[in-house]
Write the structure tokens for this entry.
Amino acid sequence: MLKWTIVLILIAVGAKAQVSADLSLSTGCNYVSFGQYAKFAGQFFYQYKGWNFSAGAGAIFSHEREKKLDALRLSVSKDYTIKEFLFTTDIFYQRSPFSARLNDQTAGILFNHKRNRWYFDLGANTRVYSLTNKYKSGTGYSENALWEPVNVMYRLTWHKPVGAKLEINTSITNFDQFLIEQETNPFLIADFQYGVTEKSKIYFDAVYQQSGLFNIKVNYFGYYLRAGYKIDIGNTPDNRIKIKAIEF
Amino acid sequence: MKILFPPLVKLPFPLLIPVFVLFSSCLKEADFSGLVYSPDRVEKRFAQSMEWNAQHPFENIIVGGENYKLLITGDVHLGSSATINNYLKFLEKAGQDDISALVFVGDISTGREGDQQSFKDHLPDPLVKPSFVMVGNHELYFDGWKYFSRLFGSSTYYFTVQTPAKKDLYICLDSGSGTLGKSQLNWLKSILETQRSRYDRCVVFTHSNFFREHHTASTSPLVEELLVLMDLFEKHKVNMVITAHDHKRAIDRLGNVTYLILDALRDDAKNATWLVLQKQSQEDLKPGAEGFLYSFEKP
């Protein structure tokens, strides 16, 4: 049986680094899920001198999916300023084993800029649908992968703090957690975040998915709801290297 | 534009892009009420198609030889320009004896009643040359589904072609809304699970293209749906998936399945072609081979 081994190497040299985590549970239903589905996802972030490293994985429980592993995602991002404006550039790779036959892999780059009330994300990804090694070894096919060269990724978020602890974010986007739609399939996210302590937040997201907007014939596709917990785990000691292996 | 421009400039830049695309393309051909509301959604259309299918059995075309041909096109957009020369040339080609049937993969017209009626009026006698038509997004504009269902009956069905030695399965699907919907997907699964093994070759037709080989505003099904469909087609050894919508030809292959996107046939299309699909009846079909010879011909 094919096993995925991800080795996370966390390096801190000469300065303190920040570690945080985001754990979430989602449930939803859409035209292709054949009933309600549930997802559990975890992402860990490591911040060091303006560089952010993250690794995440999700498990999915759905009639539609033969594989329980929803996706694995690795990303590196960097914060920087141009004039007085703060930008972030994020590079990511994501792999989703869909079935015993089919894998979905994507990699991309995203630029983020936050203004007072508006957050902007713009980028692009490239995607490969491929047959699994085990499946294709028993076939003899000449074409085992299909490549979609470029897809634009975008997110426009309206940000509204309510008091000191609550914030509301409303987004129109074609990507989320482990989901990247084609650019012609935007969806809506309503996000509510509440600061429990200085270092932790709980959040709730409601997501509405449609199809056909760019066909000028909108049609309901599905929805999902997500509840999550974000926490700053704390600082790592100086001059320390951690290596951690996770097997799926 | 004087009315539209002042509010638009206040929108954030990313919002201006889709707004510009939508308003600048096919202003006279699109029904913009569909941006916010669609009365004939895919689940309703599927239910109506099944009602029609219950009264009209699926068609079986019997041909005399093993190497029959189908003539296939999409995006005729009848009514969008003053002339219909490409459509008439297509029908002229269809009159040839070696063409067994015609297939129209959606966007046959603007969706308006008169244009759909005109399209149907030009079709050959179905007893001589059967035509198989399915909806595109344009057949849903201007209350078009009402006219489509009255003129053509169903947009979700299959037909078969029987040669002296074998029988092939052709499945036509409604993706005018950018999704097959839950009920149609269940129907497709059921057909493939229960009937695919009885047939030699299997081809699926639907309007919305699956993949994006270039930057385009044409909508594909959502990635979740694409993965389900690609997996289903591979699992059941579908040979070809033929789509339109993007107006630009593309050929992709993954495993056993060849995915074709057709050129548009509308008169103002720069590279208008139709597809001639000929069954390749060799016995030793290699894994991943289409099972068909195909060529794109200009009007």
Observations:
- Chain B is about 30% helix and 20% strand.
- Chain B touches chain A through 59 residues (CB under 8 Å).
